[in-house]
Every structure is written in C-alpha cells, then in structure tokens.
Design goal:
Number of strands: 21
Helix content: 10-25%
Largest sheet: 8 strands, mixed
CATH class: Mainly Beta
CATH superfamily: Hexapeptide repeat proteins
Shape: globular
Order of helices and strands: HEEEEEEEEEEEEEEEEEEEEE
Oligomer: single chain
Distance between the termini: 44 Å
Structural class: mainly beta
Length: 192
C-alpha cells in the first residue's frame, strides 16, 4: 500500500511540475518529457532549459534501483543553456552552468552525477570568495552512460557510445566507443 501511494504521489507531483514548466519562458519541454518528483530549478535571467522528446528527469527515490541522496538540481546562471536530447534519463543529477551544457540523445545519468561548467570560485586565494572562474562549455554525446557519482568538469567533451564507471572524474576529451574509469577517467576497454 505504502509503495503504491509513494509512486502515485511522485507521479502526480511530476505531472503538476511539468505543467508549471509550460508557463515559464525559460523552459522548453517536449510534451512527452516526464518528471518523477519535483527537481530543484534555479534559472536566472536569460537562462534556457530545453528537454527533448521522452526525457525523464527523476527526483524520486521510489522505483530507482540505487539510493538517490538528493533530487535533480539544475542551476543555470544568466545566459546559460542546458539542452537534453531525446530519450535521455537523469536520476538525481546536479547541473550547474554559467555557459552551456549539451547532453545528447539516449543518455543515462545515474544518481549523484555532477555536471559543472565552472569551478564556482577563483583559483586566486584573495579573490576566492568574491570572484568566479571562467566557464567552459560541456558536451556529452549520444548513447552515453554516466554511472553513479560521476563528476564532469568544465570544458569536458564526451564522445558517442561512452560508458563512464561509477565515481570517475571526467576531465578533457573522452573519445567515442570506450569505457572509462578513474580520476581522471582513462579508457579501460574499447566498445563495439
């Protein structure tokens, strides 16, 4: 009984949230986009969030196979853009952009994944609390799977058909058709 009630609440909240999205000029969501639970959205002036067909933004632990420690969180600063391609599924993911993040089609992102196109603070000690470093766009190709707790750093490029194993840190360019692991993530196996 409790499990069924939890699922119903998650779906109903997602339904109402999706319909509220249509009222925002900052969000372009396909009619087939789905929300489970309610994500945390912080969209500043001129920011744009675009969701392709059949995108799932999951912020509910119910029905998800690993523990999701927080809801999906999307922070887009002034003029930033986040585009998520069709048939992608995101579970408890955190996006933080001051520039642009492009996510391809059929992308899977597991709980705890962080995609951030800036470091949030200056590397100069005396400016660290008052200045932000320069943002660098991130591109994630089609058919990518980012396993639990992956961190994608500023300026990273992930090619098509890539798997990044749990707890890895993506920095730089990951070529298509490989499995990557580690900190920083390195190719460990070629995919067909």
């Amino acid at each position: 009984m409790f499990n069924s009630l939890n699922m119903i609440i998650s779906r109903v909240c997602g339904f109402f949230f999706k319909n509220l999205c249509y009222l925002s000029s900052k969000i372009n969501a396909s009619s087939s986009a789905q929300f489970r639970g309610v994500p945390l959205l912080e969209l500043h002036s001129g920011a744009k969030l675009s969701l392709g067909d059949n995108v799932l933004i999951n912020s509910s632990n119910y029905g998800y196979h690993i523990n999701m420690h927080s809801r999906t969180k999307i922070v887009l600063h002034t003029g930033a853009n986040l585009t998520i391609g069709e048939n992608s599924r995101l579970h408890g993911v955190s996006f933080h952009s001051r520039s642009e993040i492009i996510v391809g089609s059929r992308v899977l992102m597991a709980a705890g994944t962080i995609v951030i196109d800036n470091n949030g603070h200056s590397s100069v000690a005396e400016n660290r609390l008052s200045e932000v470093d320069k943002a660098r766009p991130i591109y994630i190709g089609d058919d990518v799977w980012l396993a639990a707790n992956v961190v994608v750093t500023p300026g990273s490029y992930i090619g098509n058909n890539v798997i990044v194993s749990a707890n890895s840190v993506v920095k730089g360019h990951l070529e298509s058709n490989f499995i990557y692991a580690g900190n920083p993530a390195v190719a460990v196996k070629k995919l067909r």
